Amino acid sequence: MFVFERVEGDQATRYVNILKQLEHLLEGEKDWLANLANTASHLYHSLDQVNWAGFYLLKEGELVLGPFMGQPACVRIAVGRGVCGAAVAEDETQRVEDVHQFPGHIACDASTRSEIVIPLRVDGKIIGVLDIDSPVKKRFDTLDQKYLEEYANILLRNTDWTPLLGK
Ligand code: SME
């Protein structure tokens, strides 16, 4: 059983602890499905004011729902559609302070107000996205983005993605 202690302190201190926990959680395991599942759960339980945390994986040019925590979500998202599709099409993190102002936002949970989507790259190629939703407007700032991108990199470095790359 993993017991994760929440540390008090400023945002950076708490994130440094969360990053260390992820290293520990993934230690000795390279399986992509197991690691995505545990990472989604870890994020969901580590961050405050979050109602959905999980993954969409690129399959034949379309994003398909992967492991997550939160309400059931839409299964398929075309590249270029919604916040997730924009992250792939633009090849960069999308940080949306108010999803009601984002043209084409796909509402999976009506309570979501802000969202961050981080592309996952293996050998320079996008294999999917990490998506985190919050019921609070402007939940994610630039510091959240910096640490969550680092968090995604820890997952990427500690996982064998070969089965997803069709090699
Ligand atoms: N809101 C996302 C869809 C996925 S759900 O939030 C889980 C989007 O606009 O792409």
From TrEMBL:
Pfam families named in the record: GAF
InterPro entries documented for this protein: FRMsr_CS (IPR000614), GAF (IPR003018), GAF-like_dom_sf (IPR029016), Phosphatase_reg/MetRdx (IPR051330)
Alphabetical list of Gene3D superfamilies matching this protein: 3.30.450.40
GO molecular function, one term: L-methionine-(R)-S-oxide reductase activity
Cellular-component GO terms for this entry: cytosol
Transmembrane residue ranges: none
Domain of life, per lineage: Bacteria
SMART domains listed in its UniProt record: GAF
Domain GAF: 32-166
Family, as annotated: Belongs to the free Met sulfoxide reductase family.
Name of the protein this chain belongs to: GAF domain-containing protein
